[in-house]
Amino acid sequence: MATVKKDITEVSDKITRVKKIVKKRAERLKEKELLQTPISEGVSWKDLNFSHPERTVRIGTVFSGIGAVEHAFQRLGLKHQIMFAGDIEPKCKQSYFANYAIKEEDWFDDIRNFDATKYLHKVDFVIGGAPCQAFSMVGHRLGFEDARGTLFYEFARVVKETRPKVFLFENVRGLLNHDKGRTWQIIHDIFEELGYDVKFHVLNSCDYGIPQHRERVYCLGFRQKTKFEYPAPVPLEYIMYDFLEDYIDTKYFLKEKGVKFVTSHKNRDKSYTQINGDIQLCQKRNQQFNWHGDFVFHPDSELTPTDEAFDEFIFDVKDVEEKYYLSDKVVKYVLAGGTKNFKTSTKTDLDIARPLLQSMHKMHRAGVDNYVTHKGRIRKLTPRECLRLMGFKDSFKIVVSDTAMYQQAGNSIVVDVLIALLKQMDITKYGI
Ligand SMILES: C[S@@+](CC[C@H](N)C(=O)[O-])C[C@H]1O[C@@H](n2cnc3c(N)ncnc32)[C@H](O)[C@@H]1O
């Protein structure tokens, strides 16, 4: 019987071709967008207890700002020690030192000059959100050393030098899509290259108790391989009005030009501005100066005529500010039910806004059904309200100017999201 001779070269060519295809596919697979770590379907983080409340967690923060995570530890009443913190902005240092216990020698200004090696294995948890404009690693796949020159590199370097048990890297949501996802892939790979088990998910603060639309990516790195799922959203129990102050300095009320800008259809339709919203637009560092963001409409028609002290105050205000009140025309325009935001909020004022109603018994007789027919004024949020809407309690001391405080609040991480994460990961496990 004649045998068919196998052409070995042909087979090997085929193998080479197949190998090439497999390699390409594998590469393409690697290029694919990384998947977010799942959200927990188990017990809500709200009902979880810390396993080791007796332990002290040693924390180190970079790009520290006003110390959102430090405030989260304070709010949770957890034992912690600030090993280091720093920010290039001197006014952040002022705010930070007024609110947290830290030694001068543990503070650094520019992260690029911060040698963190002396904290090797002395810190359990490192946290930082590098300013987002710092990422331009466009193009090639880079390793840790190639990321040099970016502020992300500085964060990664501090992790490398200190080797914490856990780190949290927070940033804007857009970072995940930057350069078609490649920037995130690089960051992710670098964290893995440093030996961390990396998780990430985009969380919106309005899903964690704070009425603000603020989506951020929260990336956690665990030195040990760790089972971790992100905290599940919880229903929002408060609206923005619940965070407002009772008495407002007249300086926060808008003058004519501001009112026109804020109430313009264009700006409201594009969500540049919002009046009496239930959920705050994302707080930005500059919003209070260019009239972008959230504003509050104050009806001033139901003043208590018998409350002399208050009348005096109000008359003073009127004397000075009469020209800033909305004209009837503007009021009609503003309250014409033009946008869905406004309709909702008007209704909300009537039904829910308890803290405001508490002040209303002093300020405005709660004949709120007259609401839409009366004059009023529009104001911006105060720095304290901006802080509250970032999860900072009033125990947080304001020691800088309004301008600086708005910027610092707008730059911060929402404390309530951090609380959800700290509970979900049971941060006390990493304490000593
Ligand atoms: C997005 S904010 C982070 C705020 C912080 N997470 C908080 O809780 O308030 C970024 C911060 O990085 C600071 N920063 C920018 N460049 C820096 C540098 N080279 N060294 C140290 N801090 C820097 C900014 O001043 C700013 O406060």
Tell me what you see in this structure.
With 432 residues, the protein is α/β, with parallel strands linked by helices. The chain has two domains: 45-236 and 411-430, Rossmann fold; 246-381, no CATH class. It is 34% helix and 13% strand. It is built from 14 helices and ten strands. The protein has helices at 8-31, 68-76, 90-99, 151-162, 182-193, 256-263, 265-269, 308-321, 328-334, 340-351, 354-363, 383-388, 402-411, 415-424, and strands at 57-62, 80-86, 107-108, 125-128, 166-172, 197-204, 215-222, 273-275, 293-299, 376-380. A seven-stranded mixed beta sheet has the order 3-2-1-4-5-7-6, sandwiched between helices. A three-stranded mixed beta sheet has the order 8-9-10. Strand 4 (125-128), helix 4 and strand 5 form a beta-alpha-beta unit. Helix 2 (68-76) packs across helix 14 (415-424). The N and C termini lie far apart (80 Å). Bound molecules: S-adenosylmethionine (SAM). S-adenosylmethionine binds next to loops.
